Structure to design on (209 residues):
């Protein structure tokens, strides 16, 4: 079974209003955002399948917003995201198809990238995972070798929404700003480092991490 689908099967759709709930609804063809109780207020936590699904939905929705921040989604940005799907997430064919659908839906929805980031922070407490999202946003912004003013504005503002210290912008800017065009997505080791696994880890171990 698709583990994206398993997350929905675990009932997490019923936990969400807001942008993630709307994205889940657009993905599966229903609405989870209307009139549902915010279980986060009751201290409900996610199981593993649920957390994985939230990560994918929020991540690809935010990547879509970043990719479109300068007015258009470039081939370099699409290629970087595709490489991440294939080399890091190692999604199966069905999950890859669904991740792309989430990305496409989020490009034109009515929520901002900050709406997604704020809700993601509420549900995903692991700081390393929030830092990974920020790093990927930086990678997409630099996919074409330059930082557009609209992209920079997001990268300066969104650490607060993700619950990260503002100094992370300077650290990432120093790292990505010294790379040449087309190289921002070439090194994937940093993502493995965040998860504290090696690049030759099995698919099962990677998903567990």
């Amino acid at each position: 079974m698709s583990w994206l689908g398993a997350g929905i099967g675990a009932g997490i759709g019923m936990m969400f209003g807001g942008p993630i709930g709307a994205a889940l609804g657009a993905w599966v063809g229903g609405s989870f955002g209307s009139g549902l109780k915010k279980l986060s207020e009751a201290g409900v936590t996610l199981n593993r399948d649920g957390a994985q699904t939230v990560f994918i939905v929020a991540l690809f929705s935010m990547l879509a917003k970043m990719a479109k921040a300068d007015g258009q989604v470039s081939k370099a940005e699409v290629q970087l995201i595709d490489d991440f799907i294939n080399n890091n997430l190692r999604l199966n064919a069905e999950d890859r198809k669904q991740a792309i659908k989430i990305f496409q839906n989020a490009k034109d929805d009515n929520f901002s990238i900050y709406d997604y980031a704020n809700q993601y922070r509420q549900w995903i407490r692991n700081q390393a995972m929030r830092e990974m999202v920020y790093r990927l946003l930086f990678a997409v912004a630099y996919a074409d070798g330059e930082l557009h003013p609209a992209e920079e504005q997001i990268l300066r503002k969104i650490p607060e929404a993700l619950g990260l210290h503002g100094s992370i912008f300077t650290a990432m800017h120093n790292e990505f700003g010294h790379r040449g065009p087309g190289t921002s997505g070439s090194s994937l080791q940093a993502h493995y480092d965040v998860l504290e696994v090696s690049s030759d880890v099995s698919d099962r171990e990677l998903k567990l991490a």
In short: Residues 30-43, 180-187 have pLDDT under 50 and may be disordered. DSSP finds eleven helices and no strands in the chain.
